[in-house]
Structure formats: structure tokens, C-alpha cells
Specification:
2 copies of one chain form a homodimer. By secondary structure, the first copy, chain A, is an alpha+beta fold. The first copy, chain A, has 2 domains: about 100 residues, Phosphorylase Kinase, domain 1 (2-Layer Sandwich); about 290 residues, Alpha-Beta Complex (Aminoglycoside 3'-phosphotransferase, Chain: A, domain 2). Helices cover about 50% and strands about 10% of the residues of chain A. Chain A contains 15 helices and 12 strands. In chain A, strands 1-2-3-7-6 form a 5-stranded antiparallel beta sheet, with helices on both faces. In chain A, strands 8-10-11 form a 3-stranded antiparallel beta sheet. In chain A, helix 5 runs parallel beside helix 11, helix 10 packs across helix 12 and helix 12 runs antiparallel to helix 14. The longest helix of chain A is centred in the last third of the chain and has 32 residues. The N and C termini of chain A lie far apart (about 55 Å). The interface between A and B is large, with 46 and 46 residues. The structure holds adenosine-5'-diphosphate (2 copies) and magnesium ion (5 copies). One magnesium ion (MG) binds next to loops of chain B.
Chain lengths: ~425, ~425
């Protein structure tokens, strides 16, 4: 058993643990008496401690063998810490500006020590709820996604390298199964985990469960999630897995990382921006109608896809023939290269819209909701925002093949009710 | 090194090897003096010995660390024997009538002992060249493919079981790379491995290398081959990997087995029937115009797909909810089940046609040709058959989305020139 010596820590045990690891103690400086330890995990799954000392600081994250917010009635593999660390390291290598550095990993303890993203870094979702503009967000996320997805795909890797990675990440299946369950299955059936604003959305949830076309579309997305080993994904790239300041954008928490369809990451981010967009009406006040902010959100969605696809194609152009999928000897003219790139990106766009929709739907009727909507004080407004999100997502899921351009999607969202 | 004790055998060493394995000797009966050993490998890669004794018989197949027909200038992993044996065992469990039984596997020696498919069993390709009708062929192949593909997919398996298998078969990447090279890459570029009937088909081969739409389509098929982990494939299901009698159909030689798109197996079989079809004109004589035989081949193609898809859907109907992809609680009405089945089968049909075309093309302009065409005595006739095969395959690859029914494909083949 890899985790035979696993021991769950608390604030005081964390300090003892760090004391036992001279390399870590040296980062903080001073002696353990000089260190502050604070648990800050607002996440659903794990414990996160901030450690600060006279010389430096770091974050220590530990997985427990169950879901934190549920308790030990919902067991969950400790191995997720290994996969999280592996993805952090790999994505950090590929997008160093947008991933915290890992300082230390203790496999038996399911424990990762990483760079502390100090204030003013906050979780993006909280910034979006507050109505804060992040002028570099689209550009940074485009860079992060293009770089990590391109370089872990067969556009950059040999099939030999890629299969080795695919095999390795098959080990994170328990986390994938959680995604399958809560994103692709339960929202479309009666399940005790599901919840929604009731009785207001009872009929909406029921209509969703009876919508054959939605279920057909979800089946295709679920199959791609389970079977398309296109790139090493973050796997949980919602706005709660991104920390930001005005100048900085960092992606954390890739414990759901695995080889899957690129659109799952891109769609997670876009879908959560869409949720932020519709929820603004619920946060509007007489001082701030949030309309300007909504326009910035729309622009950020549009810019994200636009910059992402440009960056992705630029990487491809710079690396023709690096990977095994499109050999330079076969795709040997500029026209041919453009043709296959356009086709590749257009399928990726379709996947991304599909997953964006799926991510929105599950946040309205599934187990885990988002603070953007949950924090709307007025119930009627909250219901209106939720229904709008659900209806837009359904329409997007069903009719996304009609969109060939992100601006059309932004316009549809803006015009939705 | 798993194969540190590997030793290549020859006919006399094979007898000594069997003597050292009492379980095997007991199958043959008598003593080694009573055994006959005959090498019969007509394949390109491996050595195959038939052993017969007073009591029984078997086949002993050994992989060498290189490609048999090329020599040690083209190294090839001994591990293929492990994957071949693993697939034989798994597919035998699922389709016992259509896969020989494995009696013994020696991993270090890359050596498999299996049921001898005695005469009148012959390699199907040879039977097709001779113009022999196999009345049960379509039904048997439909049964084999439906059963092996369905039961190794997420329609029958949990994602936990499937990922474990996917991870395991990631190990057969060297064989997949060979397929990538000779099927999806080299035919579409200038490569020293390529050959075609020259100078007759020089312009045809060049036109293929300059066809942007063909290259776009091949890219999609190659990506699915590399990235879509849909089922445990045979991986090399041409008519030279099938042994038949009037009553029996057995699939051998799955050393290219891996988790890939189902259509790759179905297309391999259909594409090789199509090659058999076009080559009949080259084998027609004044006594036998082969026209009736061509009609039987068309019917066999049609029946194969028809029976395969029926059998596949029947398995699905009988096993609703067995696998993790389509949960019964979500797909909870007959109409919904039919809808997702139709969509699933229609994508599989499209994939199958695409791979059928790719398999035909590579047999005309790539490294490995087929005896169906190679054995045509008249050069002009051979060229005509090859050009017809190439042109039909190109058209099929480009326009397969227009076909929704196998009969349309058969009609197009029949009407092709
Ligand atoms: N490297 C870090 N720097 C600063 N804060 C962090 C860091 N990692 C996590 N946090 C904080 O801890 C919270 C939970 O972390 P997260 O990795 O998302 O855990 P979980 O897997 O439980 O969701 C984050 O929302 C953030 O507030
Ligand atoms: N189980 C068997 N029973 C009878 N003949 C066999 C059997 N397996 C292989 N052969 C004969 O040996 C030939 C080569 O076997 P095959 O498995 O296709 O090897 P390769 O991998 O080299 O192509 C076949 O074409 C067939 O004639
Ligand atoms: Mg988190
Ligand atoms: Mg997490
Ligand atoms: Mg408004
Ligand atoms: Mg063979
Ligand atoms: Mg073989």
C-alpha cells in the first residue's frame, strides 16, 4: 500500500511535518516558533495550509481519503495528490507564468508543497462576483491553455511519448469517474445528489431529464471525455481553480488531470465565464448596474477563444512536424497546413461549446453549485439568472454546430433571456 | 529485460522446446520421435510451426526481434507476442467459435502455442482469390466483430475496467506506430518504402500525394486511430488474418491489438473484401467470368455490415446499462435508446468506410500489397484493377458522409470503373 504511512495533518501537525523536512523549513526561515500556519481550504475536497516564516512562505495541500465537504461516507483516492502534482509540474514547465511552482511532494502523505500565491491574489470566481475587471485574464488563459494543450498533444509529442503519458494518467480514473457521474450523468436523471432552487426550477429540471436531444448530445460529450486522449487536461478548469491579480493569472488544483479532449478545459473556463455573465443581473445594484461589467465578460469570452486559437495555431506553425499526428512530409504546403488547422480548431471549438454548456447545466441542477449564483441575495432574481443560464446552455448544447465564431456565441448569450 | 532468455527457434529447436514442456508434449502424444514439425509462416512478421503427433496437434508461433520479411535492419518489439496472446485469450472468451484457443504462452521466448486450424482451413484471402464461396462468412465475421467490440467497450465495461485495459494496451504502441507509418502516413508522401505498379500508376500515386481533401480525411482517421480508445481491436483484421472452411471462420494474428476505434477493425475487413472484389476482373477466365462471385462478394459486404450492426444493437439491447457510457437511468425510454444507438452506429459506419478506404489505398501505393492484386497474371488487367481500387477508395474516403446505408456503398463499388 502506497499510503500505508498516511497521516492526516492539522495545523500543529503541519508545523511538525515541516520541521522534519529541513528543505522546507529553510524556505520559511527561522525556527518553527517563528512560523504561522493557517488552514484556508475553501475547496470541497482537500486541506490547504498557508505557512509563513521570517524568510519565505508556501502552501501545503493534503488530500484526505474522502471528500472533505461530505465526510468519510464518500471515499476518494489519495492518489489524486500524485496526479495533481504531476500535472502542476508538467503544466508549470509548459506555462511557467500561469502555474505555481511545486517545492515538494510526499506521495505516502498525499501532500504537496507549492508556491504561495499571496494577496492580492484571489480566486477568480470571487473577483468576478465582486465585479472586478482583469484586463489580462483572456490573454493569460489563452496562453495557459494553448501551451499546455498543444504541447501535451500529438501535435507536439511522438505517439510513443503520448501513449506513455496516457497510460500513466489512466491511473487517475477515480477522479474521472467523479466527473462522469456529476457532470455527464446525474444532472440528466433523478439522483439524490442533485439539487436546484425548488420548487421554482422543478419543471425546468424535469424538462431537462425528458429532453432527448440534450441526452443525445451529452452522450457524445461523455464518450469523448472517456475515450478521446487528445491532451493532458487540467480537468477542473473553472473560475474557482484560477487565482488572479490585475497582473497575474495562475491555474491551481489540477487533481482531475488526465488525457482527455482539449475542449473540456476550454469549455470549463468559457462555461464558467458564462455563468458569471448571467449571474451579474443578480448582483446589480442601484449604484452599479453591472452592464459595463457584463460587456467586459463577453469581451473576455470572445478574446479568450480568439487569442487561444491564434496562439494554438502559432505554436503549431512554429512546431510543424514536432508531433506524430501531422507529418510535415504529408502536410507539405501552407494551404494544406491551414486547411487541417482550420478543421482541427473548428472541432475543438465545437467541443468547447459543448463542454461549456454541460458545465453550466450541472451547476444549476447537479450536486455542486457556483457561488456566482448561490450568493445572489434576491431569490426571484437568482431563479431568473439560473433559468437563463440553463436555457442558454440547453440551446448551446443543441445548436452549437450553427456557430462558427465565438462572437456569435457571445451575441446569443447577450440576447438570451 | 523481460526477454533476456529469448532464443530464436528453428524446426529442430522447436521439438526440443516442446519436449521441455510436458504439458505440450502430452497434447501431441508419443515421444519427440513421433512428432512432425513444419514451418508454415507465410506472414511477413513471425515464424509459425505446425506440430503433429500421434494424439494431437498445435501451432507454435514465435516472434523475432525484427520484421521477418525485411530482416534485422527493421527491429520490432518481441512484446507483440504478449499482446497477441492477450487479445487471443480475451477475444476467444468473447467469441469462442471464431478464435483459436491458446494452450501456452512463454513471455521471455515471445512464443505462443495455440489450436491448429487444420485443413480444409485456409487463409480467407487465398479462398477469395480462388473464387470460393463461404456462405457463413458474413454471419461469422459479424458475430466476431460485434461480440469482441461491444464487450470490450464502455457499452459493456465500467470506466474503471476499461481504463485498466487501455493502460495495458498502451504498451503495444510500437505496433501502433507501424500502422501509423504504413497506413496513415507513407502512402501520402514520398517514402522509400512505398511501391506501386510503375510507371503505370506513377501519376495516380502522385495525384494522391497532392490531394488536399484526401490528406484532410486521413488526418481525421489517423487522429481517431491514435486517440479514440473505443474498444479492444484485433488491429490487423484483413483477409489474411482469417482462416476459413465452409463451416468455420477463425480470426488469428491480433498482434496489433490495442484500444482504438471500432471502425478500424470493421473497415479492415470490408476494405479487404472490396480489394477482393475489384481484383476478380483480373482472375476472370473464359471458363469463369467471376461475375457471380463478385455478386457474392458484394452481398457478403452488405450482409457483414447489416448483420454486424443488428448483432451489435442486439447485444446493446440485452445489456443496457452494463457499461458506464449510457446509463439506463438517463437513457430510460425505448425511443431514447434507439436514438442514441442510431447515432452511435452511424458514426461507426462512417469510421468503418473511412478505414476501409485507407486500407485499400495503402495496399496499392504503400509498402505491403495484397495477393489478390499481386497475383493477377496480366499486367494491364492488374493495373486496371489497382486503379479502380484506388479511385473507388479515394471517392469513398472523400464522400463517405453521403452514404447512410451499406447497399449504397456496394452499388457505388459495383458501378465504379
Ligand atoms: N498556491 C496557493 N496559493 C494561495 N492560495 C491557495 C493556493 N492553493 C490553494 N489555495 C487556496 O486554497 C483553496 C483551496 O485550494 P484548491 O487547490 O482549490 O483545493 P480543493 O482541491 O480542495 O478545491 C483555494 O481556493 C485557494 O483559496
Ligand atoms: N492457428 C493456426 N492454425 C493453422 N495455421 C496457422 C495458425 N496460425 C497461423 N497459421 C498459418 O501461419 C501463417 C502465418 O500466421 P500469422 O499468425 O498470420 O503470422 P504473421 O504474424 O507472421 O502474419 C498464417 O497465414 C497461416 O497460414
Ligand atoms: Mg479547488
Ligand atoms: Mg480540487
Ligand atoms: Mg443586463
Ligand atoms: Mg498474419
Ligand atoms: Mg501478424
Amino acid at each position: 500500500d502506497l499510503h500505508a504511512n498516511f497521516k492526516p495533518l492539522n495545523e500543529s501537525l503541519v508545523a511538525s511535518y515541516v520541521k522534519s523536512q529541513p528543505r522546507l523549513g529553510a524556505i520559511l526561515g527561522g525556527t518553527s516558533a517563528d512560523w504561522s500556519v493557517k488552514e484556508v481550504g475553501d475547496g470541497n475536497l482537500n486541506f490547504v495550509y498557508i505557512l509563513e516564516g521570517p524568510k519565505g512562505s508556501f502552501v501545503l495541500k493534503q488530500a484526505l481519503p474522502y471528500v472533505r465537504c461530505v465526510g468519510d461516507s464518500w471515499p476518494m483516492t489519495l492518489e489524486r495528490a500524485f496526479f495533481e502534482t504531476t500535472v502542476l509540474r508538467e503544466h508549470r514547465r509548459l506555462a511557467p507564468n500561469h502555474v505555481p511552482e511545486v517545492y515538494h511532494f510526499d506521495h505516502p502523505m498525499a501532500l504537496t508543497v507549492m508556491e504561495y500565491l499571496a494577496p492580492p491574489h484571489i480566486i477568480l470566481r470571487k473577483g468576478l462576483i465582486a465585479g472586478t475587471v482583469y484586463p489580462l485574464l483572456a490573454q493569460h488563459m489563452a496562453e495557459y491553455m494553448a501551451s499546455t494543450l498543444f504541447h501535451t498533444s500529438l501535435l507536439a509529442l511522438s505517439t510513443l511519448q503520448q501513449r506513455k503519458e496516457v497510460a500513466r494518467f489512466c491511473g487517475n480514473i477515480e477522479m474521472c469517474r467523479l466527473t462522469e457521474q456529476v457532470i455527464f450523468t446525474e444532472p440528466y436523471m433523478e439522483a439524490s445528489n442533485n439539487r436546484w432552487t425548488s420548487p421554482h426550477l422543478d419543471a425546468d429540471a424535469q424538462a431537462l431529464r425528458e429532453d432527448a436531444i440534450i441526452k443525445l448530445e451529452i452522450a457524445g460529450l461523455k464518450s469523448k471525455f472517456c475515450e478521446k486522449t487528445q491532451a493532458l487536461l487540467h480537468g477542473d478548469l473553472h473560475t474557482g481553480s484560477i487565482m488572479v491579480t490585475q497582473e497575474s493569472t495562475k491555474c491551481i488544483d489540477p487533481e482531475f488531470g488526465f488525457y482527455g479532449p482539449m475542449g473540456f478545459d476550454v469549455g470549463a473556463f468559457l462555461g464558467n465565464l458564462m455563468l458569471a455573465y448571467v449571474s451579474q443581473d443578480g448582483h446589480a445594484t442601484s449604484e452599479n448596474d453591472r452592464e459595463g461589467y457584463q460587456l467586459w465578460l463577453l469581451k473576455t469570452m470572445g478574446d479568450t477563444w480568439q487569442l487561444f486559437s491564434e496562439r494554438f495555431v502559432a505554436l503549431w506553425d512554429k512546431n510543424w512536424g514536432a508531433g506524430d499526428s501531422y507529418k510535415i512530409e504529408v502536410y507539405n504546403t501552407k494551404e494544406l497546413q491551414s486547411l487541417v488547422q482550420k478543421t482541427y480548431l473548428s472541432e475543438l471549438f465545437q467541443d468547447s461549446l459543448g463542454y461549456a454548456a454541460a458545465k453550466m447545466i450541472r451547476r444549476i441542477v447537479g450536486i455542486a453549485h457556483v457561488e456566482d449564483l448561490e450568493s445572489i441575495p434576491d431569490l426571484e432574481k437568482k431563479v431568473a439568472c439560473e433559468r437563463r443560464a440553463l436555457n442558454f446552455a440547453k440551446q448551446l448544447l443543441k445548436e452549437r454546430s450553427k456557430y462558427s465564431d465565438i462572437r456569435q456565441v457571445c451575441n446569443a448569450l447577450q440576447g438570451s433571456q
